[in-house]
Amino acid sequence: MNLDRDTQRQISNLLAILAAFFTNVLANIKPLDGLTIAEISDQYFEPVLILPAGYAFSIWGLIYVGLIALGIYQVLPRNKKNPRTEQLGYWLTFASIAQIIWVVLFQYQLFALSLVLISLILFCLVRLYILINNNAKTVSTNKWLINRPVSIYCAWITVATIVNAACVLHSFGWQGGGLAPEIWTAILLVVGTGLAGFVTVKHRDLVYGGVFVWAWVAIAVEHVNAAVVPVVAIAGAVILAGLCVVTLFMPHRSSLSLKNKN
């Protein structure tokens, strides 16, 4: 049976998302090297001050609910030539395959290689995020079944990449180059807050900003007794939450363009 390119793309994205989902499930039920990802983090990376509390990783449930919904939506026959689903390309396929490989590498404690893979996932998702957010106006269905799932996935992988990088440096025994771990963590939190704030405002993306609020609060909870870190994390979360509220009242770019024409 010969499948046209659009159908191949649709099926590829759905199957890759499902494969990544089941890989993550199996990694927790029957870990490859005997330890789950959470157990590895607890055993090797407890001193890493930007590692969030364990409950924060429950966001993966929401991520995959959104991704599976997206996968099903984009594979529907009526969306075969939908310009919005066509923009997905194979980026979700690439990201999902990289996600599967990341799980394997991390479970075998190949942390440096895992950083390469999570950086690849981030690249794919940033590219996809830019593609699907280049229109000023988006149909509501597309927004909830395409934009929102990609936003939450991209935001969390951004956080995870920062955490993964910190864990790799810790595994190499890096001492901070003269700066205390608390200072480096505070710097990462400030940079992350700035990045998330920029994306939230530029794209009026409450979901993206909300994921960082979730992560920053979880970091504060996990390291509540550390110097500086919980204060900076909570401050960042408050700032981002405030920006999310502000974006609710910002006029849409399409509305501004129409007003200027009139």
Secondary-structure blueprint:
Layout: H1 5-29, H2 37-44, H3 59-75, H4 83-86, H5 91-107, H6 111-132, H7 140-171, H8 181-202, H9 206-222, H10 229-248, H11 253-261
Helix pairs in contact: 1-3, 1-5, 3-7, 5-6, 6-7, 7-9, 8-9, 8-10, 9-10
Can you give a write-up of this model?
With 262 residues, the chain is mostly helical. The protein folds into two domains: 1-174; 176-251, no CATH class. Helix content is 74%, strand content 0%. Helix 6 (111-132) packs antiparallel against helix 7. The protein is globular, with a radius of gyration of 19 Å. 37% of the residues are buried. Residues 254-262 have low confidence and may be disordered.
- The tally of helices reads 11
Average predicted local confidence, pLDDT: 93
Q: What is the first-to-last residue Cα distance?
A: 54 Å
Kindly estimate the percentage of residues that lie in beta strands according to DSSP.
under 5%
The number of distinct structural domains comes to 2
Low-confidence stretches: 254-262
Shape: globular
Rg of Cα set: 19 Å
The number of distinct β-strands equals: 0
Task: Give the class from helix and strand content and strand pairing.
Answer: mainly alpha
Report helical residue fraction: over 70%
Largest sheet: none
Q: Spell out the helices and strands N to C.
A: HHHHHHHHHHH
